[in-house]
Amino acid sequence: MFSLEPELSRLRDEGVLDADAAAALIARERRDVVSLYGELRFLTWGGVMVIMTGVGIIVAKNIDRIGPITIAAAIAIAACACYAYAVARKRMARTSLVDDYILLLGALLASTEVGYIEHQFHQRYLLPLIVFHVVVAYFFESRLVLSVAIGALATYLGIERRGSFLWSEHGDNAQRAFLCAAIIFAWRFADQRFHLKTTFTRVFDHFGTNVAFWGALALMAEDETRLLGCLLAIAFAVAAAVFGVRAREEMFVIYAWVYGLIAINVLVFNMNDGLGCFFLPASTITAIVGLYVTHAKLRKAAA
What we know:
mainly alpha, 3 domains, globular
């Protein structure tokens, strides 16, 4: 198993790290101390998703019996309760792991409310919803709510209109994806420039990078634009890898390996199907080894 204990011990002996800091880091490397923060975050997020699934089931099964107005009012009250809790916690200057996820639940309920109203009453409120999510995200400094706002923006631009759209209008979908990625990155630089205490930079980076890659993948679906899509995806992969290494952000290197591998394999299959059958397993093994080596190097550099 890969361990940084020898390097940490050497840094402690050389005086680079004090004894207490080195002891804490070595304990983590030995797994004597294990953080459950990630697991608790995942369980809390899972709880929010279960609640939202239950809301969807209740609405679908009881829409005729309860009535659309009652359902809309109930969802609105639940969303307002979540926001009221978040405001109360902010005024008390107390924070916990659960707070941001209750705020996320409120944002998802608000989105459900708008979607339900649009479906039942044929009124468009998506753009005001995006503005509302953005205001809430900045007021509470919530990256989770910002993620909901960016997702709503992608929907508003038409990236996720309907299933037939995703499988038939690849060129238009790619253009919308690139437009969405451009807006996200422009928003990112504006946020970094004017929002001095921002914690949103990486949220923009992750969303913008993936949306740009999705646009390139959409181009690969058509014979006329497949080569362009492959070349764009490879170029994006190189940029993501360089950024990930320089910023020591491993996820961007993973994006580069995964999307770049897809693009290269599609390109090879497009050139020669027989060659592609042999190239696919070899490239997959290469990617796995490359990911392991990259992970080890970045982890060592971070230490």
